[in-house]
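Researcher: Quick test of sequence recovery. Tokens follow.
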């Protein structure tokens, strides 16, 4: 005899799993457009005419700051059309001194109350607006980055095509330092191909990734930065969508980012991401869906769907646990999405999930034997998102910035030779 409680539990888990399955289908259907043949942008016939302010936000980054400045100085673009600015933000080391020695323009900022990258960028943008020298666009980088020599050529092409905000390809400069850095690299490589690229093809808004992006300065001055959450990149992406703007994608403008080495470092960083994501969801979720339905704006709808991700991660983790329980204890009162399809279909789906990621990275020319080992541990990295997301959602009102220490001492020449 089935109790009333068991019936209610079965119904609730049924609604939950079907809902999560439907959202998963939505994101998968968009990702399919990543397999469209990429069109090479014609950068040869567009002269370098746009001027850039290249801004690096740095907090105690003396071990890596020289390499990002050096790589920017080596960019293949007329030197008179770009300047390199370093924000030495609340630094207590030699970041400012080293940046000056490598021909960067350094601005030191000290503010114990307004701490974090979002505040530092807002402070620097106001200074750039007030400068006698005027720039067409600003590019944002982190101190641990290395930048491909064609970066500004690509951004110049986009800007000349009328694009106002462009995100570059986020690569990894230390993919095989540890299983954590390898998992991070896999996640970013998959996101580049399956999240960013298809949205660019579909005319949706790509996501700003915190570094390696370019903004038209007139647009920035018009709508203002004003994003000081723990995930200022996500917040600005949503702010753009509400203002009728979107982020474009440049698959060939590459920025190499340093990934955390340990689970402890990764946990701390990803909790901050989820705190900021949850905070942004509270601010922008309803306004975006209101704009989406009132104006039939699919860009706003897609951005709103992305803000749902923390809740989706939690529900996805719970539904996965329910499916495991249902598999080993068929008499449990949980609904399982497995009821909808025969067992053979699930075996095929599981096989596809195993080979899909490696296949994507093979097409991205990232695949090798080390990466194959990384894929063995990658599911463990994915599972850690469940407790991290729960912790981030619970502590979303904590606005304390957690600095990620960078130590990978490698130059752009060494990276390209490797």
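Model:
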């Amino acid at each position: 005899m089935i109790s009333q409680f068991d019936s209610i539990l079965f119904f609730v888990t049924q609604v939950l799993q079907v809902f999560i399955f439907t959202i998963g289908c939505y994101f998968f259907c968009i990702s399919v457009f990543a397999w469209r043949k990429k069109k090479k942008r014609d950068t040869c016939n567009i002269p370098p005419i746009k001027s850039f302010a290249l801004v690096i936000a740095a907090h105690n980054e003396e071990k890596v700051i020289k390499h990002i400045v050096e790589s920017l100085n080596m960019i293949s673009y007329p030197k008179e059309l770009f300047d390199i600015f370093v924000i030495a933000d609340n630094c207590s080391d030699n970041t400012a001194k080293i940046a000056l020695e490598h021909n960067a323009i350094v601005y030191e900022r000290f503010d114990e109350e307004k701490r974090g990258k979002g505040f530092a960028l807002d402070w620097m943008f106001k200074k750039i607006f007030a400068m006698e020298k005027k720039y067409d666009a600003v590019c944002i980088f982190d101190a641990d980055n290395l930048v491909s020599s064609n970066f500004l050529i690509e951004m110049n092409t986009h800007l000349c095509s009328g694009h106002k905000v462009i995100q570059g390809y986020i690569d990894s400069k230390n993919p095989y330092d540890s299983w954590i850095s390898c998992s991070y690299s896999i996640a970013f490589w998959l996101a580049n191909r399956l999240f960013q690229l298809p949205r660019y093809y579909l005319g949706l808004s790509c996501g700003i990734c915190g570094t390696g992006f370019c903004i038209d300065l007139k647009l920035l001055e018009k709508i203002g930065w004003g994003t000081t959450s723990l995930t200022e990149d996500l917040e600005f992406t949503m702010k753009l969508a509400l203002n009728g703007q979107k982020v474009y994608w440049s698959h060939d403008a590459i920025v190499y980012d340093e990934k955390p080495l340990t689970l402890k470092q990764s946990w701390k960083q990803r909790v901050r991401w989820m705190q900021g994501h949850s905070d942004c969801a509270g601010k922008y979720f309803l306004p975006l869906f209101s704009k989406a339905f009132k104006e039939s704006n699919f860009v706003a709808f897609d951005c709103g769907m992305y803000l749902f991700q923390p809740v989706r991660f939690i529900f996805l983790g719970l539904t996965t646990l329910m499916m495991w329980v249902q598999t080993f204890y068929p008499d449990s009162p949980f609904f399982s999405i497995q009821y909808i399809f025969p067992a053979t279909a699930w075996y095929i789906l599981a096989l596809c999930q195993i080979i899909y990621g490696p296949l994507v990275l093979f097409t991205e020319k990232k695949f090798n034997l080390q990466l194959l080992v990384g894929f063995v541990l990658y599911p463990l990295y994915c599972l850690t998102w469940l407790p991290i997301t729960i912790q981030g959602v619970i502590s979303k009102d904590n606005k304390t910035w957690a600095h990620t220490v960078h130590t990978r001492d490698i130059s752009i020449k060494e990276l390209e030779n490797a």
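DSSP finds 15 helices and eight strands in the chain.
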